[in-house]
Amino acid sequence: MTAEEIARRSADAMWARDDASKWLGMSLDAVGPGTATTSFTVEKHHTNGHDICHGGYIFTLADSAFAFACNSYNQLAVAQHNTISFLRPGKLGERLTAEAKELTRAGRSGVYDVTVTNGEGKVVATFRGASRVIDGKHFEEET
């Protein structure tokens, strides 16, 4: 299997069980080795008391892109820690897109940056996640 095929099969296995991302209205738009893109449209139920997208939903969007990127090698990976900086609001009706890119992997640890943009391509938030590989695989590879 190619690295692209492994990334896609890993993502398909995760997406099948990812009820939280689906409930949010998210889509998994792209995946590759160490990369992933997720998105959703800000709807009324995503807004807070300022009538903008709640930061928790933006964090979830970024965290899901991070999760698919760090799980793209058919190894189960979980978050060790992550941070987010909110730079501008997500507005009602906007399509927010989170693009995750791997910075490095060493042993069982990885570091990923995620950029969340709005429909105009402006940066809404930046997210950095650290992953840790645990026991298990998403699917059995054929030998």
From TrEMBL:
Gene: paaI
Keyword Ribonucleoprotein attached: no
Gene Ontology molecular-function annotations: acyl-CoA hydrolase activity
Keywords: Hydrolase
Protein name: Hydroxyphenylacetyl-CoA thioesterase PaaI
InterPro entries (alphabetical): Acyl-CoA_thioesterase_PaaI, HotDog_dom_sf, PaaD, PAAI_dom, Thioestr_dom
Lineage: Bacteria, Pseudomonadati, Pseudomonadota, Alphaproteobacteria, Hyphomicrobiales
Family: Belongs to the thioesterase PaaI family.
Domain (Thioesterase) ranges: 52-125
This protein's record includes keyword Hydrolase: yes
Top-level taxon of the source organism: Bacteria
